[in-house]
Protein 1
Amino acid sequence: MADFLQNCLDGIAIGAAYALLALGFTLIFGVLRRLNLSYGPSIMAGVFAGTAAYMAFNAGLAEVAIATVIGAVVVGAYIERLCFWAIRKDMAVASMVSSFVIWMQIEEGVTLLFPDRTYAFPGILADSVVEFGPFFLRASSLAMLAIAALAVLGLLALIYRTHFGLAVRAVSENPEAARVAGVNTGLVTLLAFACASALGGLAGFLIAAGDQQITPLFGLWATFKGLIAMMLGGMGSIPGAVLGGLLLGTVEANALWYLGVETRDLIAYMLLFAVLTFRPGGLMGQAALMARRAAESRV
Amino acid sequence: MLEVEGLVTNYGMIEALKGVDISVPEGRITCVLGPNGAGKTTLLMTIAGLLRPRRGSVTFEGRDITGASSAAVVRRGIALVPENRLVFPDMTVRDNLVAGAYTRLARERGEAMADLDRMFERFPVLKERAALNAGTLSGGEQQMLAVARALMTKPRCLLMDEPSLGLAPLIVAEVFSIIRELNEAGTTILLVEQNAHMALTVAHHFFLLDQGRVAFDGDPGAMAEDEVIQRAYLGSAGG
Ligand SMILES: Nc1ncnc2c1ncn2[C@@H]1O[C@H](COP(=O)(O)OP(=O)(O)OP(=O)(O)O)[C@@H](O)[C@H]1O
Ligand SMILES: [Mg+2]
């Protein structure tokens, strides 16, 4: 039991990072109704911008974090203009495939600029450990959890308490109706994309600072984890993204402890498969899916 | 007030409007009739900036607004009540209305919120349902919401696309009395309808659109006498 609880604690810490990744995915999917496979690689590019700042200017933690977020936002905006703005809205597959192509482009670009396999990244509170009775957590994990929680609260405030958030929700629900109400949907979409990239950049920074090293494969990893966590919770659902991230983290941590590293990812995929089979809308997306169907049948 | 000249709008290769001329005088209710697929919705969407015309012009209060973005058109004072309502189903009734005032929130938030209270006064059913998601409203209530949302932009000209579609007769009568009331309060209205009998009770001028062209243009008296319209829209069966 103690093992299980300790695993859950570790799982929640990494799950917080998954949740941030899933939030970015869900925000983009919400406003566009299209998948951005290049989301992870844009974060990876941001993390390399952070590393560059660290290596070239010996930048402090805060500057590295800012460089990471800015890098992710710039590359994210590039993806948005190319794969989503320039491609017709009803061509979801074209957007998705082109986002895959851009993924390859970003990975190649980063590999050209950074030819080594791994690069160092500055750590937060490296190596120190916080104890809670019999349980313990790395201080960097605790920092990750706290920053992620703040970011989620900030995002909720932005989406539910501001004019911009109202516009984002309007565009997510019905882009045509949003245009009827005078919302500049193109601008709102670009800004929402930028917010998602900033969240992703933050997640990337926290993860890289925890690992203290990065590789270009980080893009693949981030897309994978974020996508699975989002699908678990329900595409387009903010609480779903948080739940999906935490669930994925805890299930992975327990699978790793009890079954070993080879089985860990297998368990994660089986979990996703089970959820999608029984609740195709995801854990939190199902209710929204049903409500929307009911509403449509009434019109 | 609103002048449409030689308007041509395409969907890919399909020409939905083939040169439409329509004039909407200030303070009046102008009605566009026409069979399914005539291009009525296309006309309103082009005026509202949701579709870009290939040729022709739209002039509002002497200013050329051809091809302007929907946000710019809303800011100029034209609001659309779209076909099939198009409310935001997972947002509360209140948020739907605030979203309607989106273009005003930055500069005149206080005034927009006062309008919100006024809207709740005028549509008490929306006040009762203010905290519910719009998707849970009945069809008639959603239509009221769509009208109220358009009014939140503070339009001088209201475009309405088949507001009576799919509603029970009692609700249709209510919608039309709202149209008349809005017009009496000074709003110019361009109404698209298939219900010619109801339209006759409110409209000052009629256009008949058929296959992307204006096939008739006249006042209610002339329309009631026109043989083609008689047969197609006002047949003795009661339409
Ligand atoms: N999105 C679209 N893509 C392609 N063709 C379209 C599209 N929307 C409408 N059309 C075509 O344009 C023409 C005019 O359509 P429109 O919706 O303007 O007609 P309408 O007069 O509003 O009809 P209704 O009374 O059924 O609402 C029709 O022939 C229709 O098939
Ligand atoms: Mg129509």
Note: The beta strands of chain B are 2-11, 14-24, 29-33, 55-60, 63-64, 78-81, 157-161, 188-192, 205-210, 213-218.
Protein 2
Amino acid sequence: MMVATKEIPLKEYVLKGNAACAGCQDMVALRHAHKALEGDVIQVVPACCTSVVQSLWPKVGMNIPILNTAFMASGATASGVKAALRAKGKDDTTVMVWAGDGGTFDIGLQALSGAFERRTDMLYVCYNNQVYSNTGTQRSGATPLYAQTTTTWFGKREPEKLLDLIVAMHEPAYQATANAAYPRDLFDKFKRAKEIKGPKFIHIFIPCPQAWNYPVEKGVEIGKLAVETGYWIMWERIGDKFELGRHSKRFQDPSKRKPIEDFLKLQGRFSRLFKPEKDEEKIKEIEDYIQHRWDILLKTLT
Amino acid sequence: MSLRVRSCRAHSGCVLVVNEVNTEPEGRANMPKTSYSKPSVGATGKTGSWRTFDPVINYKECSKCRTCWLYCPEAVITLEDDGTPHIDYDYCKGCGICAQVCPRKCIDMVRKGTRDEEDEE
Amino acid sequence: MKTELMSANYAAARAVVSARVEVVAAYPITPATTVPEQIALLSEKGIYKGEFIRVESEHSAMFACIGASSTGARAFTATSSNGLLLMDEALHWASAARLPIVLANINRSVSPSWNIHVSHDDSMSKRDTGWIQFYVSSVDEFYHTIIQAFKLAEDERVLMPTMVNADGFVLSHTVSRYDYLEPEEVDKFLQPYSPPHWVMDPENPVAHGNIVFPEHYQEFRYSMHEGTKNALDVYLEIEAEYKKLFGKYFGGPIECYKCDDADYIMTSQGTIGAEARDAIDQLRKDGYKVGSARIRMYRPFPIDHIRDLAKGKKAIASFDRSVSYGFGGPVANDIRASLYATDIRPLIKSYIGGLGGRDITVPDIKEILLDLIKHEESGEAGPEETWHDLR
Ligand SMILES: Cc1ncc(C[n+]2csc(CCOP(=O)(O)OP(=O)(O)O)c2C)c(N)n1
Ligand code: SF4
Ligand code: SF4
């Protein structure tokens, strides 16, 4: 049973008047993650939008301890925080990394891998807006096929790397995907993660109005379309027990999925797939890649 | 210096929105040794000034389902015990998400300045 | 206190125990490797009681120390050469965050080509990271300076990370006598670390390191500069206290040997300073009024001590085991700069050598001093910079 909206605590850890863009889905995810963790957390943040949304010294728009760190160093920094807590006998506090896709898929991958191999008791969250938003939308290892960025002006030629499988091969104690458009599900996943010792990973799909170029009010709609088109797969893995999420279950059958176009055409970053004329071939390629992702995920983890 | 930069993308896609933040120099006598920050509401000032459209809740239609509260990225919607939502216009950035997700479609986005403030209760 | 026989690296691992370090994070690199190896052993035996994080890189080692220190723990790491270079981003981070981390750097040449022997290029290239820097000349001095470094770094007037440098192999792998202090003894000198300003604590949440605009950035940097500069006087206090408690004293920021009545001085860093004593004694026998000044503290640079040292001297040979490409010996440059605003004007000659572990022995030092004397006496300054033993 998913948590009812009414049961989610009212206390806010994301404070109003912060520096996030209007409509930023990262803030929705942060709000509910922290409601689940209830403040007993130290959050490590590498260079990314989440470092900027905090706003300027001497104020910060979040009511939790935050240790900002270098772009590639989250896994290591969190390891140090955890070690200090252990040395001081305050081991119960959750140490959480909140890193972008650049800080996770690319520059921070080594530190993440090291921390997980050491079985560090921490929760690593990758909020994935599929691009380097903070520096003005350059491609990352998470940028999807044919998305336009300021380093792939005519669309990226390679699909994103399958980070979830890389992480899964570290055999974390807990692993899940989530989506800011499903905050109740997200809340539950953070609640579960809080109770589990060892390395934990939550990968959150975060539409970004700035970088994806869609009308700000459409963030939730796009997040849901990602699931309904099969583009984003919701799942959870406790130890080696894999479970397809209830939101994604029915989209395992490709015939039940909404056409991927519904997802793509709302976003300016895919405009070249529709202008000057529709590029059926490339859209088909994206669709095929989605199926490939389903196949390889299920083959590997079930 | 008082900055009023909207959507500055000079360094940052993540819109370094600095809105009427008073950044008058502190003077180092009043500064700590390193830059640690205290949690504050309005860390970036009154972000309500970013809005072009105001969300207005039609309380007659509102079912108190809390969906707008759930999805508001800004945490500017507060709830009464019975679930009645209230928007803090000092900080609401006007993204319109609440209006989109409202299952009864009872939040309207109206051009700033046309909202009847009396209506609010 | 008990006397033991050990290499500098083994002694450094003991200093970590003595100083009750709470978190160590380190990665192997020759010649520093035996430091983390020993800490691992001491940890597995339950002698070292803190946490030991076996990180996957030096960048991660320093950031793990940063995470630990930000959470209020006393943190330590050790590295050399390429490892120190890989830490660069983290070194700047630690100092700007005012985290009193202590790093034992076992000086080694940088690559390419691979060379595991001593040069000071690694640490000299980190001169401007904000780290306080010491150079030591014996196992005993290394051990005790590491303990002192925690007290210095954690002093509220300082709050800057501190690097203690020891020459690779010459010290790191050479067994020698040193005086070990039990943690209970060190307790009299070193109190538990308690961050005076901010710490990661859910009970009292703050964020460290979010954006600072041009209105304030410079003032934070000034405060770092002040902290580093304060380190000089604070170190004098610390040394005095240490001497009183344990009878150990290594000579202050600059250890002088027969400098007082000397006309000619050779300055150097690290183990060459120890070697220089024999050279001085031999030259003195031949009637030369020479002395040796071993610069122990390189940052903050002990400007006043340099001025006192240079006053009334005819000439100074500054020996650098490193080079600032295109501008000679880094310490020589600092000595010259320290005197420029004064009317103290000895001839100052820069000698560069001993790179990649090339031996610098007593005859080398004599040769350098005689070269200095020859130029001073002839009134011909000669080259500003001489590469010693350049073949
Ligand atoms: C070592 C280093 N290289 C580059 C940067 C510049 N930089 C800061 S944030 C960023 C992109 C962040 O992207 P991502 O992790 O996807 O997070 P997002 O901004 O999208 O939230 C880059 C390239 C940096 N801070 N440090
Ligand atoms: S650029 Fe995107 S992810 Fe970054 S703050 Fe703005 S909306 Fe959020
Ligand atoms: S417009 Fe956006 S910020 Fe304002 S109340 Fe609605 S969801 Fe929240």
Note: The domain at 7-301 of chain A is CATH 3.40.50.970 (Rossmann fold).
Protein 3
Amino acid sequence: MKVAITSTGNSPDSMLDPRFGRCSWFVIYDTETGSTEFIPNPYKNEEEDVGLAVVNLIISRQVKKIISGEFGVKVKSLLDRRQVQLILLKESGFTITKIIELLNH
Amino acid sequence: MSPSFKRPRKILSPPIIKGFKPFGGEADKHNSEPILLLFEEYEALRLCDYDMLTHHQAGAAMGVSRPTFTRIYASVRQKLAQAFAEGRQIIIEGGKVYFDSEWYHCNQCGCYFNHPEPHTKARQCPLCGSHEIAFSESENGLAEESTEVDDFCFCPTCGRKAKHHYGSPCNQMICPDCNTQMRRNRMRGCKNR
Ligand SMILES: [Zn+2]
Ligand SMILES: [Zn+2]
């Protein structure tokens, strides 16, 4: 299964980016193969409709779970409809490596 | 955690516009980053200064505690002041999702998560796998507050009252007796600053 994690940078030591639509990078982690892919968020600085564009990007990658610090109301309803599970981490200080470790509990 | 527990959904009426642009003066010369207002901040300002609710009432309407509401409200005021003072654009977008009965909290790793299959119960944390999970009743785990606020819209012509519904401005209601546009009861103000 593929999991998307919002990241502040493009390395496993980067921190979770608390923003969903305007995060810097997305990490696509495949729980079966253990592979990670870092994708820069192309919509980061767009003024409008960021949520929808980002949701479409995520959906195109067959992601089933998203880990971030917050989700907008519109984004939540879009993702609910597509049965994507949302996971919120409110505390800062989670690195991508730490989150992947948690996923592999 | 009773299965019949249902927290009322939080009312968030989306703003009718996406933001504001400054004009005149040096507005065009500035290329500064826009100020991002969260929906919840917009909502806080609207409930408090447009619908004239008290912080307590507005917090109840949004499903957050009064201290949380006051913090959101302070943040929106500060952002608006900054946008005005620095001639910056305002974009209204996004924000936190309010936790309701479909959100769970993991006591092990501290995450919150939803459960997209509505007819089953979540059994374990999707992040750390812990079974130490519970329904998250509100953002801060505070006791639920009633969202019933006894406020009303009234007809300025015949005086007919109607219960106010959050998210639908009174001036979009038409008095069933005399077809006048109705108004908000503005007896209350924000007294909790
Ligand atoms: Zn957990
Ligand atoms: Zn009337």
Note: The pocket of zinc ion (ligand 2) is lined by residues B 155, 157-158, 160, 175, 177-178, 180 (CB under 6 Å).
